[in-house]
Amino acid sequence: MTADLDRMQGLVASDRPLTWVFTGDSITHGLIHTRGARSYAEHLHELIRGDLGRVQDIVINTAITGWRADLILGDFDRRAAAWRPDVVSLMIGTNDCTTVWLDPVIEPDAFEASIAEFVRRVRALDALPVLQTPPTVDLLHAPDRERIGEFAQRIRDVAARGGVMLVDQHARFAEFSAGTGPGNEGMPWGLLDDAFHPNAAGHALLALEWARTLGLDARTAESRVLADLTARVAVARHPHWPSA
Predict the structure, then answer these.
(1) d(C-alpha 153, C-alpha 132), whole Å
(2) Cβ-Cβ contacts under 8 Å for 88 (sequence gap 6 or more)
(3) Cα separation of 73 and 54, whole Å?
(4) Model confidence over 63-95: pLDDT tens digits?
């Protein structure tokens, strides 16, 4: 167990009210592509303040559609610091990696430096940073994001170097379609609403992986939230097709 994860377990086991901040881009923002269902941050809100009984905690989502790591650093006070957080979770990279929509294009070294700076600023608040890699991308329909894997790796590198808690959503999405039958072509179709935005089931998986990585799944023996999310992911992986 890393020092950060150990500290996280201590915080959750304590009676002290905590403030959790989620930030990032459209995936964390959670609009449109869930088709009215809850986003992963909303699922985690229910898990933390509901199943875990931490009713005095505050869960805040400051993500904005289309944003990148450099933009979040430029607005760090509003995105994170102003809320006096105990935990700050960042998922970013899907927009940063594009080779078409940005001028100039963001280089991987610059992206990695932004992630490292974000971690530094969160630690300066005496808060715990949580880094998430972005989900995989359907490159056939979004070829401009072909660098997504490299950008995900840069997040892993920062996390490993700094002992930061890492929720590797990219790896989880990549492995999702294994064994689901021919025609999937290695893509987690059941988790996506378009080429790179998770659908309702995708957000269920994001929430499950976040809770599992931070050990929140072990804090409640019979979580209604986690049971529901697990079922949603299972159906997405093995859908019940209507009979002919």
Answers:
(1) 11
(2) 21, 23, 80, 122, 125, 127, 128, 129, 130
(3) 30
(4) 999 999 999 999 999 999 999 999 999 999 999
pLDDT reading at 41 higher than 70: yes
For the chain, the straight-line distance linking the first and the last C-alpha, in angstroms and rounded, comes to: 51
Q: What is the pLDDT of residues 139-177, one digit of tens each?
A: 888 899 999 999 999 999 999 999 999 999 999 999 988
The H or E element spanning position 166 is strand 165-167
Q: Are 170 and 145 in contact (CB under 8 A)?
A: no
What separation in angstroms does the CA of 9 have from each of 12, 14, 22, 201?
5, 9, 18, 27
d(CA 79, CA 69): 11
Rounded Cα distance, 158 and 184, in Å: 32
Q: Are 93 and 114 in contact (CB under 8 A)?
A: no
CA distance 184 to 174: 12
Whole-number Å distance between alpha carbons of 165 and 8: 9
What lies within 8 Å, CB to CB, of 78 at 6+ separation is 62
Phi, psi (5° rounding) for residue 81? Answer: -60, -40
Structure tokens at 50: 């509901």
